[in-house]
Records
---
Amino acid sequence: MKNIFFVFYLYLKMVSNSLQNFYSSHKKYISFCMLFFTLSLSICSNAQEKEFNSAIVKVNKYIEGSLVTPYSDVNVPLIIFIMDAGAINKDGNDHMSKNDTFKKLAHELARSGIATYRYNKRLFTMDKFGIKEHEISLDHFIEDAESIIEYFSRNKNYKKIFVAGHGQGSLVGMIAAKEKANGFISIAGNAMPIDQVIIEQIAKQAPGLDKSAFVAFKELKEKGRAVSYDPALESIFRYNLQPFMKSWIKYNPTEEIAKLSMPILIIHGEKDIQVELFQAEQLTEAAPQAESLLVPNMNHILKEIKGGRLENHKSYNEPHRKIMPEVITSIVKFVNQ
C-alpha cells in the first residue's frame, strides 16, 4: 500500500514539475493571452453599457420614472410615455403579467438616437400619501403628464418633446400635450368616450347588461352617482370607483385630438383585441394632419401575433417577444422629420 502511495506521489510531482516548466517557458505568452482576454471582456462590456444611459428622475413627489437616453446625449428629441388604464407600470406590466413592452421600446429608441421618459402613474403612490381610491381622477393623470412636459421643457436639454400615450394614456397625452409639446403619438387609443366603449363591449360579451350600463352611466353624468345597475357590473360601478369614471367619461378623444395643431402619429395593430381598429380610423378622421400606421398581425402591446386569441393573450406574459419593427421605424421617422 505504501508503495502505491509513493508511486502516486511521484506521478503528481512529475505533473507539477511539467506544468511549472511549461508556464516558465511560455510565461510571457500566457500573460499576454490573459491580458488580451481581460481587455476583450472589458471592451465588450463597455460597448453594451454605452448603448444608452438610464437614470431614475423624480419630477415631483408623485412622479418618479426612468429616463433612457442615447449614449451621446447631445440635443436629442425626448418622448414621454404615458401608460394604459389600470395598474400598468412604467415598463408596460401589471401584477399579473410581464411583457416589458415600453422598457424594450425605450431601449430600442435610445439606440436610434431618441431619449424617452416613462413613469408609474399616481396609482402607485396612493398608499404612500394616504390617497383613497375615490380621491383619484383622470384629471390627476393629466396634471401629472403636464408637470412632466413642463419639467423637461425647463431644463432645455432636448431639442423637441413628444408625448406618446398608450390606451387610456392616449387620451391623457393628447390633453396634456396641447400647446406644450412638439408632437403627439397615439398608440392603441380609443376614439369614443369611455362610457360608449364600455357599453359596446358589454353588448358583445354580455347582451342585456349593456342596457343596465347605459342607465348607470346616464345617472353618473346627470346625478353624480349611479345606483341603478346590475350587480354583475359592480367592477365598473362600485362606489369608490365612480368618481374616477365620472372624470373619465367627460372627455371625448375625437374632440380632444381635433384641438391639436401639432404633428400627430396614430399607431394601431390589426390584431388588437382590446381596442378595435375603427377607433384608430375615427381618430385619424378627427385629425386630418395625422399620420397613421396600421400594423398587420400586431396586438395591443405591439407584439406580432401569427395565431389566434390564445396566442394573443399569452403574449402579455412573454417578455421575450420583440417590438414590431414597423413601430420603431415609424416613431423614429416621425420624431426626426
---
Amino acid sequence: MTEQEILQGLYDRTLVGDAPAVLDLTDQGLAAGLAPETMLFEALIPALEEVGARFERGDFFVPEMLIAGRAMAGAMEVLRPLLAQTGAASLGRFLMGTVKGDVHDIGKNLVNIMLEGAGFEVIDLGVQVAPERFVAAIREHRPDIVGFSAFLTTTMPMFKANINALEKAGLRDQVIVMVGGAPVTQEYADAVGADGYAADASTAVRRAKELLAGRRAVAGTPS
C-alpha cells in the first residue's frame, strides 16, 4: 500500500470503528516510514472530527461514537509514546474525573478519547474522585482545564463542592472548569459557577478549544 492509501484506510476504518484494521494500518504506516504525527493529524483526528460532525447532525449515535473512539484509542496506544519522543505539541492539558459518589465512566472515557484525538494531553483520575484529590492533582499536573463528570442527580452537587475546594486552595483562577454528564444542563453549570458545559463528547472538545483559546487570548499567549 502507498502512504496515501494507508492514510485513507486509517480515516475510513476509524470512521466505522474497525479497531483491528486501524491497528494493522497504524503498524503498516510505521513500517512504511509514516511519521506518527502524520497519521494522527491527517487521518485519525479528521476521522474523529467527522464522527463528531455526524453525531451532531443525527447521522451517528453514541454506539457509533464509542466504537470509533475505541478504534482511535487502539492506534493511540501505539502512537502515544512515539509522539512523546518527537515532541509533538499538545493543545493543552485536561484533567478529568468522575465526582465522588459516582462510578459511571463510559461518557467520561469517550470524552477523554475525543479530547486526546483532538490533540489534548488527558490525565484521567478515574471515578469516585474526592475534592481533595482534584486539588492535589491540579497542583501536581497544572492542567489548563479540569473536567468534573456526574451521571447521577444525587452526585451533581459535588460540582459545587469541588469548585469550593478549588477556591479554598487558591486554584480556581488558575484552571478552566468544565462539567458534564447525562443529567447536567447549562443552567446547572451556570448555577455552580463552572466555566463550561457540554452535552456530549463532540461538543466537549469544541467547547474546550473555545475556552482555552479565550483564556490564552486574555493572557496574551498564543492559542
---
Amino acid sequence: MLLYASVLLIATVILSKTEQVYSPFTSTCNAAKLEPEATCPSSRSEWNRRAKQKQCTDVVLSCKKKIALKYHCLINTWKNLTLSVCAVPTYINGFRCPEFNIKGSNIQPHYDTNCSIDIPACPFRYNSQDVYKYRSCYVLNMENSAILNTKPTTKSELETNDGDNFFGVNLRILWCILVLVILPVASAVSFTLYKKHCDHSQVLDATIKNDHKTTTDILSEKSTLFSEKENTMIEI
C-alpha cells in the first residue's frame, strides 16, 4: 500500500510539472506577445512597419526585468509555423536560421536549416532581426503539419501545433502508461515476497513444533525406562 501511494505521488508531481511547462504561452522574462503569423516580412521597411504594430517596447515583463524586447518573425521548432513575437535579439551562428522555441521561450539556431544557400547568402554570424533577408528561413515543411492550410487563431492551438508541445503530450501519456504498468508489477512482487515469507514462517513453526515433540517424546521415554529400572531394583 505504501509503495502504491509513493508511485502515485511521484507520477502526480511529474504530470503536474509537465502540465505547467506546456500550458498556453504567456509572457516570460525573455519573450511576450507570441502569435501565429501567416507570412513574415521580406524587407526592412515591412519589418519596421510590423514592429511598430507589435509595440514590443510597451511590454511589461512578468518578472519586471529591464530587457529590451524586439519584434521578430520566425519559424517554430518543427518548422511548420511562422510566429511573431517580442523577444530578446540573439546572434545566430553557423549559417543557421533562427527559430523561436516555445518551451525554452527563447530564440535559438534551427540546426536543420542552412541559409548559406540563399541569394544573398547569410553570413556565419548575424543578428536574429536580420532574418528577413534570407527567405529560405521561411520555407515551411508541409509534411510536419496537416493543418497548415488553416491559420491557428488561439494560443492553445499555437502550442498544440508546436513540436515542443507534441513531446509534452506524449511524455504525459508515457508516464501514465508507466504508472499503470509499474503498479501491478510492484503489487505482484510484493505479494510474492509476502507469500514466501509466510510459507517460510509456517515451515519454521512446523519444524520447531516437530523438534519440540521429538524432544518431549525422548524425555518421556527416558523417564519411563528410569522408572522401570527403579522398580526392578526395589523388587530385588
---
Amino acid sequence: MHVFVTGGTGTIGSAVVAELLRNGHTVLALARSDASARTLKDAGADPLRGEIADLDVLRAGAAQSDGVISLAFSRDYSDPGTLAQAVAQESAALAALGNELTGSGRPIVTVSGTPWVPGRASTEADPLPTDGPVGGRGRSVNALLELASRGVRTSAVRMPRTVHNKGRGGFAGLLVDQARRTAVAGYPGDGTQRWPAVHALDAAVLFRLALESAPAGTSWHAVADEGDAVRDIAAVIGRRLGLPVEAIPEGDFGPFGPIFAMDQPASSARTRDALGWHPTHPGLLEDLENIQP
C-alpha cells in the first residue's frame, strides 16, 4: 500500500513509518517543518508539507493514498485550554480524512486511549469515555468508526498511558520530566494505581496489522504491560535520577492530574488472538533503566 501518515515523526509515528517501510509499504507523511521533512526523507518516506490544521492538505494526502494512519496530536498540555484546542483540531482532521475516504473501501487507522473501568482491566469491547478532559477524543474516534457504514474500513488502535522507547515517552515520560524540574520523583495518590504501557516498536506493528487486515469499525488495544503501579514507575525514575520518591498533589501534574491518579489497567487479549499481535520488546520498568541521570 501507499500509506498517508500524519504525526510521522513522533515517538509512535517514527516507529510506524519504519514498520511500514520495512514491510513493503510506501509512505507519504505530513511534515509541518523543513526539519520534519528532512527527517522523513532520511527515513525513506515522502514528505507532504502542512499541519494537522491544514484540512485541504490532509484531504490531498488521503486522496493519493491506499490507506491512512492518523497519529498527529498536539503535545502542548500546558493548560486545559491548549488541550481542548488540540482535541478540537484532531476531531476536524479525522472528519476531513474520513470524508475523503467515504465510499472507497480504503482503510484508515486512528489512535485513541485505552478506557478505564472501575475494578477491572478494560477490554477492546469497553466504550471510550466521551466526557472529561479528553472526552472529545472519544467522540471524534467514535464518529470515525461509524464511517464503516459509509464504505470506509475504519479502525482504532487504543494506546496505553505510556508508549515508551529507550526510557522516554508517555505518562511515564511526563513523570521523568516533572522529576527533573522539581528534584522529586513524584506520583499522585497512593501510587498503587496502575498504568498500562507498550513499547513504541510493538505498537507500530499493531498499527500495520490494523491497516492491513482489521475489519471495519473495530477497536484494538496496544497493551503489552497490563498495569504497572505508578509508585513502582516513580521508584525506577527516582533511582535512575538519584532523587527522592514521594507522593505529591495531583494538581501538580496540571490538566492530566485527575487521569494520573486513576487506576486504569487494560487488557489486549482479544487483539493478540484476532490480529496475531505479540509484543517482543522490553516492558516499561525495564525500559526506564535507560533513563540517563
